[in-house]
């Protein structure tokens, strides 16, 4: 078992991150620029920086209702530390809670090649494959919106910044193709889906998809956990009337 | 059990964060500004923004050796998801691993009042208290440095931005007082300690201390976990020669 | 960093646990006997075995309402693995959720010495100390019962098995003393409290208190997580009407 | 979001587990019997009880080297609670660390039907499927043993107790078939594999496979975490000489 890393370490007396002395980065980079550097290995361009800032802001917080926040507050409520409760929030961010980013980013990055000249045809082929395997394409659909306003905003920002936009085009072509076969039901590219397209535009490997979502959402989790600590009494139980036992009726041990 | 939050929610059709519509924030704020808003409830000033960016960059990543990175890589290595491994990193960030921020910030914020006119006298009184209770003041000392270069850099940035600096002054007065009684052993304000002083300068409640460290360090943890996934083979065991059994010698069950 | 352990390892070709070859233990010990061996370092006597079996059964499961079960189900519901969800259950078992065992066991084991000849006098002194420090003695009180039936049952079993009972006597003396000063409010030794007394009777160090509770409760957590996986749909959100935003009213960015 | 469970709850004044009043179970069941009841919904027969006790003992502890123990000790070492550290152990028990139990149990339970009359033919068909899909059958192989002594012991116990043995027969037929095509390399049914077969013999659904492994291994994790707390100094870092930075050489920011 050898431990090696290309992310950070010591070169002589300097602590370096991806080669840059850390003391040089402090005060020179924004946090989002440093995140880009840590994940991708190089500094972002000015427009990559702006797009990443916008994407992380879009993810940061969405209220008390999602399972990650409930789990984090429950852990705190049992009498545990801030970092344990935040960890429970991260633990909850699985396949159905931000996981679509990684899955769709993989699909986009592995489907689109330099040779692709028509994203509509590619989108049709992708949908066909998914339908034959009876799978759903991740990153589409929203329970409230016909179009997700956060997704629209991020796409607009990416266009305004002059991104090439082939991954976004493919993601939108998939949306159109899905809706063409959905009997009028809207299946909009949602905030997970657009994040998948945007990290692909920035050249970030799909393997970082879940990680990027965790980075973006953790500040919200922290705020909720601190609020729970400062405003609520410990030991939240489910209230009477919200739960019930529907198992075997009463019975007794025999011959014991 | 009622669930209420002042952090984010719906007002009519808008998702708001601390009152601001989320779609307005996307593209307008940097990620660090949004972090400030989520944690403190209001937007930072320009100099608060710059100081927070610098602080988060200082925390972001410090190589493969700390226990949080080893734990995170071990969890991935057992065949687990990215978010589980990142959660293990957060779990490790306890009292001895970033925890000094919260403890020292509490001390600084509860000791320094508008009436305090001499931080040296206050520092002396604090040290006396700690010595009488046989406790160590958290946030001081470094195994390599006489002065921690990251701490020096952050203090310089805070001064240049025109921060009042009373919390920094108190933190440095404690350093001088500690060193006055340490027989020449350096006990520099370290990166945890300076973070405690800086978040106090920005008016962030000490309860957010651990959370701020987690927010800052999670990108580094993500990068390590993704690197482990992409470069290493699964199931890291301790290598032969690094571990040993020092328990009871061999013995056998009787009468079983 | 050297890794040494007295719990288990290799002696020649044998895997041993506390000195005993593992293959000898399989089929010879009950699971509870093996737990005792792993934690304490020696095999239990017959009556210690019986008392430990009874204690672990008393802990195993208490329905869907406690925060540990809600957190575990929430983690699963986000689209995560069985072991991640079980880990969230363990994460929740903190100071207010089983934590009283360790705290009370420490108190009992550090207070009671071979020289103690009167547990009533000792109980009075303990209560006095706690009252002076404005602390609550952990392990007492129940929202439903005047006497906790599980505690009564475990005490009866310990008496019937012929345990000396000095730790139980002290725990009950503390109960009487607490109730003498509670204006008629019942403050019964609860299941956490009795577990603290019982592990002390068995000579298990108080440091194992939280661990014993986790060992006992994990099977219940596993059953809930598997039930969630097999019976429920993913992504549990708090239902409308159970949560609300009580933060700042709507406001807008200026000059951005 | 409604919370319902068939595992445990209140019927009138009684807390019941799978219908049985909890106070009746305390002192009547062994811990392993209660585990069986909680997971499967009914009490085990005498021979099921004995086989489950043996299986859980076989799993309980295997030394300090596996990643689950290293992760758990690292979390404690960062200055965290016993339950957080134990949770990190559970987090590590993923696809490559006990996960084979669930995968193989699924395969066995879904392949073997009442109509199966020849397990050798079934084994051949299974292997063929796996080879065509370029997958490995989980639960086979050991780095030290030609035959895993723990697996042999458990099979012997199951045979002696008079279990029908069709799942064991199928698991062994797969072993023979794998070895027939491995050029003399031993691919013995290992302790994970035999556990899969045994829980199938006991009629426990494969979904409980990972959970059963966690239940069995948690006592070992607890013992290690308590030992770390009582014997070791905090903050384990990787020692110098075991890790290295192999990333970009030193470079500097331009124009910042």
Give the key terms:
2 domains; 256 residues; 54% helix; mainly alpha; homotetramer; Cytochrome p450-Terp, domain 2
Contiguous runs where pLDDT drops below 50 for at least 5 residues of chain A: none
N-C termini distance of chain A: 52 Å
Q: What's the number of extended β-strand segments of chain A?
A: 5
| The CATH C-level class name of the largest domain in chain A | Mainly Alpha
Could you describe the 3D structure shown?
4 copies of one chain form a homotetramer. Chain A is mainly alpha-helical and 256 residues long. The mean pLDDT of chain A is 96. A 3-stranded antiparallel sheet of chain A has the order 2-3-4. Chain A is 54% helix and 6% strand. Chain A is built from 11 helices and 5 strands. Chain A has 2 domains: 9-43, no CATH class; 45-231, Cytochrome P450-Terp, domain 2 (Cytochrome p450-Terp, domain 2, Orthogonal Bundle). Chains in contact: A-B, A-C, A-D, B-C, B-D, C-D. The interface between A and B is large, with 80 and 80 residues.
Short description:
Four copies of one chain form a homotetramer. Chain A is mainly alpha-helical and 256 residues long.
Protein topology:
The structure is a homotetramer of 256-residue chains.
Chain A (H helix, E strand, L loop, with lengths): L2 E3 L2 E4 L2 E4 L2 E2 H4 L5 H10 L5 H14 L7 H11 L4 H11 L6 H13 L7 H14 L16 H12 L5 H15 L10 H11 L7 H23 L11 E3 L11
Antiparallel strand pairs in A: 2-3, 3-4
Helix pairs in contact in A: 3-8, 3-10, 3-11, 4-5, 4-11, 5-11, 6-10, 7-9, 8-10, 9-10
């Amino acid at each position: 078992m050898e431990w090696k890393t290309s992310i950070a370490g010591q070169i002589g007396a300097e602590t370096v991150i991806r080669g840059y002395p850390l003391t040089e980065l402090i005060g020179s980079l924004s946090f989002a620029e440093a995140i880009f550097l840590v994940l991708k290995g190089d500094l972002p361009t000015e427009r990559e920086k702006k797009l990443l800032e916008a994407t992380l802001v879009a993810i940061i917080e969405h209220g008390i209702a999602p399972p990650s926040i409930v789990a984090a507050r429950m852990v705190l409520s049992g009498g545990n530390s801030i970092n344990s409760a935040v960890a429970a929030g991260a633990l909850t961010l699985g396949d159905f809670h931000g996981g679509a980013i990684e899955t769709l980013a993989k699909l986009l990055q592995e489907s689109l090649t330099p040779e692709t000249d028509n994203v509509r045809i590619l989108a049709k082929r992708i949908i066909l494959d998914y339908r034959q395997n009876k799978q759903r394409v991740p990153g589409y659909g929203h329970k409230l919106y016909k179009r997700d306003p956060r997704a629209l905003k991020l796409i607009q920002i990416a266009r305004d910044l002059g991104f090439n936009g082939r991954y976004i085009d493919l993601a939108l072509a998939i949306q159109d193709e899905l809706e063409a076969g959905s009997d009028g039901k809207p299946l909009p590219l949602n905030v997970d889906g657009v994040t998948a397209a945007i990290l692909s535009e920035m050249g970030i490997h799909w393997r970082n998809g879940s990680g990027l979502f965790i980075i973006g959402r953790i500040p919200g989790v922290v705020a909720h956990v601190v609020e729970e600590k400062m405003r609520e009494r410990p030991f939240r139980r489910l209230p009477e009337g919200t739960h019930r036992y529907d198992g075997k009726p009463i019975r007794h041990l025999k011959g014991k």
